[in-house]
Amino acid sequence: MKSSLKYLSCVVVLLISSESTSFAEDALPTMDDIKERIKQTESLIQNLQVSEKSVRRQRDYRGGDETYEMKRQCEWTVSADGKRHYIASGESLRYLQNGASTSPFKTELAFDGTFARSLRYLGSDLTRIISGQIADYPTRHSMLPTEFTVLWGSETLLEIIAKRSFSVVEKDEHQGRTVFVIENEPVERDGKFWTRRIYFDMERGTQVKTAYANKKSLEADWNEYAIWSGLDHQEITPGVWLPLKYRKYSFNFKDDGSPKEFVDGYIGTYSNWKVNVNLPNDKFTLKYPENIRVNDQRKGGNGKLLSKEETQELNAPVK
């Protein structure tokens, strides 16, 4: 059995290698070529684990010129079908009447595809859990690592490009490598045109940059107002290339033509990538400790505190 799996893996990698050499000339790949390449990479990933460290920079959203820095770290486990677990800690920003300040935080979250369960720790004692929450959708405190793969978050890259009319518009370069820019047909809204631009490395089979952009007319250049990109990719397992660094920035472009303004961003590193490890069955669920009150943020929950019996029911193993 093991030899058969090893043989199959080699066949997949060989197919990927031969496919990636088809676009060495000036001709652009078609969207069907891109889709097939995405499917090849998807087939190699069932789950990912990684350690993340980052610095978030955030401008005062109330209109001030001050920019705040917050150090953060996170331990991620994510599955190809959108489930996730993380433990995040570091600094968060609190806005006060006369300014803002950073304060320590720690939180744990598990999303099983149905509900997101989370625990919050006391800022002055990060070993002490003070509350829990259950919600329909997971929150996060840093960059979801699957957004630097073909998996993305709640949707895969394949699902995203199937929703609108995307096309391969040009060849570009990212960290000295040839990439192809996939762009959806511009949408006109609020007097501007809007699009998403995805930079795809055909040889490695993964996106390396994503940008949201707008412009005043179809003849104008795009203003990329939200950008995130993976850097220093390594082949973690045959056929799966993942970044060791990343950057995320967002900007504000004013209509008067003045220089763009920084809004917020992350600079981060990923380490200890693991692909397709065996995970315990309950990795994406979370049990609430006794005597912890749980806030219900699900649709219809209206933020009520669950009773002890309701919390115990959430802790019960799924039959």
Structural summary, described in words:
The protein has 319 residues and is mainly beta. The protein folds into two domains: 2-46 and 146-275, no CATH class; 70-142 and 280-315, no CATH class. 14% of the residues lie in helices and 50% in strands. It contains four helices and 16 strands. It has helices at residues 2-20, 31-42, 157-163, 308-315, and strands spanning 47-59, 67-79, 84-96, 99-111, 116-122, 125-135, 166-174, 177-184, 187-189, 192-201, 206-215, 223-237, 240-252, 261-275, 294-296, 304-305. It has a 16-stranded mixed β-sheet that branches. A hairpin with a 2-residue loop joins strand 7 and strand 8. The longest helix has 19 residues, at 2-20. The relative contact order is 0.16. The model is unreliable at 1-11 and 17-22 (pLDDT under 50).
Please write out the topology.
Layout: H1 2-20, H2 31-42, E1 47-59, E2 67-79, E3 84-96, E4 99-111, E5 116-122, E6 125-135, H3 157-163, E7 166-174, E8 177-184, E9 187-189, E10 192-201, E11 206-215, E12 223-237, E13 240-252, E14 261-275, E15 294-296, E16 304-305, H4 308-315
Parallel strand pairs: 6-15
Antiparallel strand pairs: 1-2, 1-14, 2-3, 3-4, 4-5, 5-6, 7-8, 8-10, 9-10, 10-11, 11-12, 12-13, 13-14, 15-16
Q: What is the succession of H and E elements?
A: HHEEEEEEHEEEEEEEEEEH
Low-confidence stretches: 1-11, 17-22
Q: Give the DSSP E fraction (strand runs of 2 or more residues).
A: over 45%
CA-based shape: globular
Structural class: mainly beta
